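Figure S7 source data.
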Amino acid sequence: MSPVPVVGVLALQGAFARHVDALRRLGFDPVEVRRPEQLAGIDALVMPGGESTTMIKLLTGFDLVEPLGKRLADGMPVFGTCAGMILLAANVLDGHQDQLCFGAIDVDVRRNGYGRQVDSFEADLRVAAVGDPPVRAVFIRAPVVVRTGPTVEVLAENDGVPVLCRQGPIMVSSFHPELTDDDRLHQLFLRSLG
Ligand code: GLN
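Tokens for the predicted glutamine complex:
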């Protein structure tokens, strides 16, 4: 790993720009990843929210599925938010017929599982790993975590449902941490890079 880790942000679609801003505020010089060869030059990756089915089409079209799968299998640290969480999950319920997931973290999610009436909502979450104050979390047509494997750490829950999970180098949130100016969850992820 290089002295200052190079952090990529998957920039095919969705809410990647605010992640880039958050990483810059934390002193990193993020790389917007759109091409397979860029994956070789990064030490860690953020997979943003957006629309997972569109992202899958673009990942396929840009020949990123195989090289990204290989980096994940090799243990690259990744922070996946919302659609990013869906892509990293072990199983996706209510997915599109072509819904692909990398199985990088042992959680199952239900796509759009919070339902229509509460498509978007905000909540204050207690996250012991970052302390006080609570983290303001923005949920937008978010996935619901319906199962976590035995070695998955649940870092935060909302109404008893896991919404921030970690297993080894993979951290996932059902909400959008990049939409507030609170960078503590990005910091928590980056701390694992040493
Ligand atoms: N519902 C979206 C999907 O299925 C995820 C929403 C989001 O990333 N904000 O991909």
